[in-house]
Amino acid sequence: MRIALISDIHSNIHALEAVEKDIRKNQIDRIFCLGDIINFGAHPKECLDWVRENCDIVLKGEHDILVADPGEVYVSNPYAIQSADWTYDMLDEKDFEYINSLENFYEEPEFILTHDEPTVPGTYGFMTSLRDAKETFTCFDNRFCFYGHTHLQILFVKNNENVFAEKSEKYPLKEDEQYLISVGSVGQPRDRDTRAGYTIVDTDEGYIQFKRVPYDFEKAAADILKAGLPEIFANILKMKRD
């Protein structure tokens, strides 16, 4: 089984279409979306439609909730709220019904999916440290736990009692290990890499791979500005490593 895990699209259809091409090229069997489909970017309707049509499992994130049912989540960022108000006007009642029908957690025997902090889904904590990973591994017995929200690609591995952060882009699966994986962001990466990010897990060939896909981020940024959305969301797309 070859699974593609996408998250934090944030209404960036240009990045999502590039990732779609890469997914098709890699002959993926299932696509899981871990939430934050909308907000920040200029194409919420297109991204929401794509996810609804193409993903086998879909979770919702806090920005999806902020747009569809703002009373259910607390977000203090004024730029996110401004963007959510604009995004709301771009969607219709069927879109809101779809978003509200989604969960923020899903489990099968082999894996757990969550949008945010795996130990308490819905608290929207950022799980990025080795200390937090060690605590989180005590909370599940599944082989894999996938999460989004961080906008980063991070792999933590538990081998017996040893927990470590793995830096390689492609890591071979081992029978005696558990994995805690932040799958990255399609539409708003926060690591100063302008490419879209997603993750592949191949349980037949036995590997986890962090993928990065180039796309026209300048066009995505220009669309944000043209729509009158906060400039900060355009600037994030253009941030590069020194």
Please tell me about this protein's structure:
With about 240 residues, the chain is an alpha/beta fold. The chain has helices at about 15-25, 45-55, 60-70, 80-90, 95-100, 130-135, 215-225, 230-235; strands spanning about 1-5, 30-35, 55-60, 105-110, 110-115, 145, 155-160, 160-165, 170, 175-185, 195-200, 205-215. The strands form 2 sheets. Strands 3-2-1-11-12-9 form a 6-stranded mixed beta sheet. It is globular and about 50 Å long.
Radius of gyration: 17 Å
Mean pLDDT reading: 95
Termini gap? 38 Å
Relevant CATH superfamily: Metallo-dependent phosphatases
Shape: globular
Strand order of the largest sheet: 3-2-1-11-12-9
Supply the number of structural domains: 1
This entry's quaternary arrangement is: single chain
**Overall CATH class:** Alpha Beta
- The CATH architecture name reads 4-Layer Sandwich
Which key phrases capture this entry?
8 helices; about 240 residues; Purple Acid Phosphatase, chain A, domain 2; about 25% strand; alpha/beta
Detail the topology: elements first, then pairings:
Layout: E1 2-6, H1 13-25, E2 30-33, H2 44-54, E3 57-58, H3 62-68, H4 78-90, H5 93-101, E4 105-108, E5 111-114, H6 130-137, E6 144-147, E7 153-159, E8 162-166, E9 170-172, E10 177-183, E11 196-202, E12 207-213, H7 217-226, H8 231-237
Parallel strand pairs: 1-2, 2-3, 5-6, 6-10
Antiparallel strand pairs: 1-11, 4-5, 7-8, 7-10, 9-12, 11-12
Helix pairs in contact: 3-4, 3-5, 7-8
